[in-house]
From TrEMBL, chains A, B, C, D, E, F:
<comment type="subunit">
    <text>Homodimer.</text>
</comment>
<dbReference type="GO" id="GO:0005737">
    <property type="term" value="C:cytoplasm"/>
</dbReference>
<dbReference type="InterPro" id="IPR006674">
    <property type="entry name" value="HD_domain"/>
</dbReference>
<dbReference type="InterPro" id="IPR003607">
    <property type="entry name" value="HD/PDEase_dom"/>
</dbReference>
<dbReference type="Pfam" id="PF13023">
    <property type="entry name" value="HD_3"/>
</dbReference>
<dbReference type="GO" id="GO:0002953">
    <property type="term" value="F:5'-deoxynucleotidase activity"/>
</dbReference>
<dbReference type="GO" id="GO:0046872">
    <property type="term" value="F:metal ion binding"/>
</dbReference>
<keyword id="KW-0479">Metal-binding</keyword>
<feature type="domain" description="HD/PDEase">
    <location>
        <begin position="26"/>
        <end position="142"/>
    </location>
</feature>
<protein>
    <recommendedName>
        <fullName>5'-deoxynucleotidase</fullName>
        <ecNumber>3.1.3.89</ecNumber>
    </recommendedName>
</protein>
<keyword id="KW-0378">Hydrolase</keyword>
<dbReference type="InterPro" id="IPR039356">
    <property type="entry name" value="YfbR/HDDC2"/>
</dbReference>
Amino acid sequence: MLDTFIEAGKLKKLPRMGWLLRGVPHPESVAEHCFRVALITLFLADELKKGGVSINTERALKIALLHDLAEAKITDLPLEAQNYVDKKKAERKAMIDILGAEKVEYFELFREYEEEKSLEGRLVKFADKLEMILQAWEYEKAGIKGLDEFWNALEYLEQNEFHKYFGELIEELKELKGY
Amino acid sequence: MLDTFIEAGKLKKLPRMGWLLRGVPHPESVAEHCFRVALITLFLADELKKGGVSINTERALKIALLHDLAEAKITDLPLEAQNYVDKKKAERKAMIDILGAEKVEYFELFREYEEEKSLEGRLVKFADKLEMILQAWEYEKAGIKGLDEFWNALEYLEQNEFHKYFGELIEELKELKGY
Amino acid sequence: MLDTFIEAGKLKKLPRMGWLLRGVPHPESVAEHCFRVALITLFLADELKKGGVSINTERALKIALLHDLAEAKITDLPLEAQNYVDKKKAERKAMIDILGAEKVEYFELFREYEEEKSLEGRLVKFADKLEMILQAWEYEKAGIKGLDEFWNALEYLEQNEFHKYFGELIEELKELKGY
Amino acid sequence: MLDTFIEAGKLKKLPRMGWLLRGVPHPESVAEHCFRVALITLFLADELKKGGVSINTERALKIALLHDLAEAKITDLPLEAQNYVDKKKAERKAMIDILGAEKVEYFELFREYEEEKSLEGRLVKFADKLEMILQAWEYEKAGIKGLDEFWNALEYLEQNEFHKYFGELIEELKELKGY
Amino acid sequence: MLDTFIEAGKLKKLPRMGWLLRGVPHPESVAEHCFRVALITLFLADELKKGGVSINTERALKIALLHDLAEAKITDLPLEAQNYVDKKKAERKAMIDILGAEKVEYFELFREYEEEKSLEGRLVKFADKLEMILQAWEYEKAGIKGLDEFWNALEYLEQNEFHKYFGELIEELKELKGY
Amino acid sequence: MLDTFIEAGKLKKLPRMGWLLRGVPHPESVAEHCFRVALITLFLADELKKGGVSINTERALKIALLHDLAEAKITDLPLEAQNYVDKKKAERKAMIDILGAEKVEYFELFREYEEEKSLEGRLVKFADKLEMILQAWEYEKAGIKGLDEFWNALEYLEQNEFHKYFGELIEELKELKGY
């Protein structure tokens, strides 16, 4: 287990490449992003539950915490790099090595996110995109420019199955930007 | 909810003051620390469950994600500063403001951590200290000096109720240091 | 004395939280702020003296150098945090511990600033706010956004007893912003 | 051409991952590494020429400047990541996209480095490893620890075809470390 | 030679002062600037050659790599500082000390740049200014303000002997800015 | 006056080159150094006064605040660079430009430091060296290596006229290092 904790520590050092390549000075780390994705997942899952949706919050939180763990091995490859390497294949192999053979359960949780196989996995994907847009706005608020393309993810959120539950939240997000 | 997500974003900017005051260059943020505390909690809780302990993993994960949220308002006050301000009182007030009146459940979770009231709260406290020691070692491995006092927390871990389940893990941690 | 010098060294590491929380990358430290407050105090005090005002420049300079020293213990608590902790009380206790029992004179100088008790203390408060506005402008000049609320302090300067001596300076400051 | 210059600018932002993952604070960028590799290549090539070796310095310098250009697309993948992605294949594709179809000559130069096909390509590889060891020493000199494995590359240098020309240089390098 | 490589390593640490003084957070280093100047020189020299111009690419590349080496001793003095120190004289002395008495050839190459004595030296000067404008644009693209005066160098480029070969490139550069 | 305050702001951005060139990550700024020099001067001057020495504390504090102001124009030239530029001459010219023709008094204060002409000027020089040694120790305490040569200044302190008043302080400083 200690080895996995040490691997997870690398996420504190690895910068989120999207921001770095666009000139954000001292951008957030993968660990920072994952923290807020997990916190957002917590709130969204509980909200869904309150609304009568049958969701396994524990599973969702686990997926949120594991969803970028593979980057400890392969780093946060920017979109551009994904044209040249098979990121999905790399992530899968890396997850197996990080978790070890016996943690089949965790690898399955990771798969739920990767392939958007379960409601929980898809909720974390939703939280992941929402977190990214929020971060883009926070950088823009402080004066960073050139992050418009991150807001394209709003479309993903609006067309998402969770839009009917979190439409108000998405509207608030759009208002931040001035849409 | 968006407001809470924005508050949580501050944890990405707030440095962990213990490291900063000891001259660690560009120390980890509160969010980075929380991420790994939550991940450690995930693994430890599941391990306990496997060992037959009756633990609510979902509660533990939620506590882990909320346990430092108050710092978005009050910052990560170093130990020294805690001689001059009532940190516990400040955290409680801040949590109420961040969560809002209706999120009584989350405030209760925070209380479970603060007062070590439940098994889940105490597990997160255990994970919190373990994470700190691991981080100290990682800094030392890279050449930072002067972090000996953080290893005093080993005593806390060894005398802890969870020692009987994670004795091997703690031993591995000690071996890293050379004890 | 060496202990006090070592305490003062912490001000080099402590970031000014107002800027940090608004996303200023690598914001100034408390020590950097104090330096310019002291330099501004020097110029303003001599200007007052030239204008026939009876001011003790030595006292004013000492106050400027000591006015944030307590932050070595309690850090630069952001405005938000001051809703949750008793900053004034904390600063007072911290100053006593930093200076030691015998340096009553220095504690008194700090009190002159805190309570705006003397002309010298009030001049340093004036310099402190002026320095903050100037720094806000410098960040804005480099592209940082979202610092408008710092300019509210202009009102403090304009309604200040020193306005009649430094009206031109304040006007120049306003012109920088485009007022 | 401007597009290629803009691509090259990314190398200023991309950190050298080997150092970053070992906790070097604010590690060098790929551009910084490439600069010194090119400068070293300049000196070594001229030295070879003086010794009667038939080397094309212009080719060697071009290879040195182009050898990491692909990282503008795929980033500086750490050794660990190379277990999960086909770096060579990715670099080749990325180089073609960066240079464009018509710059066949530059792609060939890159190939000379990748496959160590020519004396010039092999000299740049030698310079690349030497530069890395020198950088490791510079970090160690400043107090960084845990960089021992970078010194394994000394073996590569000693068994290299260029050892007979630069044996003294390699000895000086070893003396820095204390071998 | 190792000493010269160590001197060159300082260029990785030395910030480009023009950006630093205008508040660019974590500005590029001299080494990063030199890298891209050399790469630009590579492309421009080959382009000239293709157009039938008699240019010695090897010389040009060497000049590009050596042109700021003196800054390892004297740092990148900002324009303002050059009103107070004799930069040209300092650079010349520093280059002699860095290169050593025997490397007369390299000192000559540096002179070709300094005094714009040869086509190669002037090409590197052209590349140096072009690189600076491109970097200014990249900072502006990310949100930095206050860099207008760097665009004055466009005039230098347009009135330059190389304008007839690279007019299109300069136009593209202007279009980036919106001219 | 505002112009001088803006000039002084540059000292917040300018790194202390001695540390930077020795690989200290994110070294202190000139402003941070000046702050503590001034604070140390405050304590030392008052101590001297208590001991019956006739010292003008106000003059000493002003000198401490002005002593590096010229660096706003010429930067903090490292020792090495001072072999190539006439630092004293540059500083003098720069000070005149920063202060303006009418502030003759401040220029005189600067001269007292530069030429160690007065007791106050020499006390600030003493504080300046003491501050540097203390900072070196603080970096070493955190793990930085290679700063031994800064401790040579201990000799300067021990042979200094102020040694007879601050012998104990200097001894405490030596004990930190282990002498």
